[in-house]
Design a protein that fits this description.
Layout (H helix, E strand, L loop, with lengths): L5 H13 L4 H11 L3 H6 L2 H4 L2 H6 L3 E10 L5 E12 L5 E7 L5 H17 L5 E7 L8 H15 L8 E4 L6 H15 L20 H19 L8 E4 L4 H12 L3 E2 L1 E4 L2 E4 L7 H13 L5 H6 L4 E4 L11 E3 L9 H9 L4 E3 L8 H9 L3 E3 L1 H4 L1 H16 L5 H25 L6 H19 L4
Parallel strand pairs: 3-4, 3-5, 6-7, 6-11, 11-12, 12-13
Antiparallel strand pairs: 1-2, 2-4, 8-9, 9-10
Helix pairs in contact: 1-2, 2-6, 6-18, 7-8, 9-10, 9-16, 9-17, 13-14, 16-17, 17-18
Amino acid sequence: MEVKNPYIKRVIEQVKKRDPNELLFHQTVEEVYSSLEPVIEKRPELEKYAILERIAEPDRTIIFRVAWVDEAGVTNVNRGMRVQNCGAIGPYKGGFRFDPTVSLEVCKFLGFEQTFKNSLTSLAMGGAKGGADFDPRGRSDADIMRFCQAFMTECYRYLGPDVDVPAGDIGVAAREVGFMYGQYKRIRGAFENGTFTGKGPSYGGSILRPEATGFGATYYTDYMLTALGDKLAGKTVMVSGFGNVAWGTCIKMTEMGAKVVTISGPDGWVHDPDGVATAEKHDFLVEMLKVDRGRVAQYADKYPNATFHAGEKPWGKIPVDIAMPCATQNEITIDEAKVLLSSGVKYLIEVSNMPCTNDAITFCQANGIQVAPSKAVNAGGVSTSGLEMTQNSIRLSWKAEEVDEKLRDIMKNIHDASLAAALGYGFGHNLVAGANIAGFLKLADALLAQGVY
């Protein structure tokens, strides 16, 4: 991505010089800031008040030790962290991730992306991310509870309903959120259930939250195709992953007339020509996730028409209309992008956080594949978390229909705002640039209004 504006070039170079080994963070800063040249050219005050530098340097970064004793009596030590990237438009908001790959680099890139994503929702939420290098796979419920309690004992002081509101992410679902919130409540001596989202519905969790990211991604895709004169019904879809995000996508895509024919995991991918989102298959996917987050091979063992392909990614292996990566960052490189093009993919919908490398995005856009960016596409999850925060504040619980209607409206507004920004700044139908600009403008205006801090 060639950048000509001297201010943007200087900031990107500073980011790389200050943290030379944080390549994922460099990638996201470069991807966002390269879209902002026409904005910076029209608004010189943004350079005067160092807006780009201030968004790229987190408000604060917290790293702490998590020492805990497992049920075998062994003492374990993990590293926990929280990156509070920018709180200009609301309390910090973003998930906790429990996975061996969690590092400062990962949390900084996710927190930066979260800041722009939350801005796009038009809800009052700043951006943050955090977690620990703890691996919950293969651990008992008792071990996971002990770890969550130890983690929260160190982290609680930085959280609160008007300060920082975490949720789940990879390795963190309702079970882990419940354990963390229970420890937070014990220490604080107050209910404060607005401190966490993704909770169980019995103590303030929002209906549809587990499915919300996938549902929102489907709604966004539908609005995108409609704006391009196309329709979702009848399309074949390739999905990676098989967690909450993937199965939410599979369910809603099927409801809206598309057919999802793949899922994937660390062990390989599954092709099911009959579609993966029948009610029975959905229930089986949920059970698979509970039993072993690392294997999808058992799906093909149960359903005879499905085939399992060990040690591979699904991209380009079969012809589909839409590719929807739902797993993790950088799973589609330029090599996968070329294969997707040759297999006839028309739309690349980034559902997970930064699933495509920058050169893969550039290649797709240059060759006629429409790209929908993750910070817009997967904002349905955090949007529903924002709705959960609202419900907690007013001590009410909305029905599924109410939450779904509000989610649809938010995703439409995100698409429309991104398209308007792209068209308004000369990017045509480039929704990647449009989402970056729309999210940035709200952040920049808030930072300018609040003075230098």
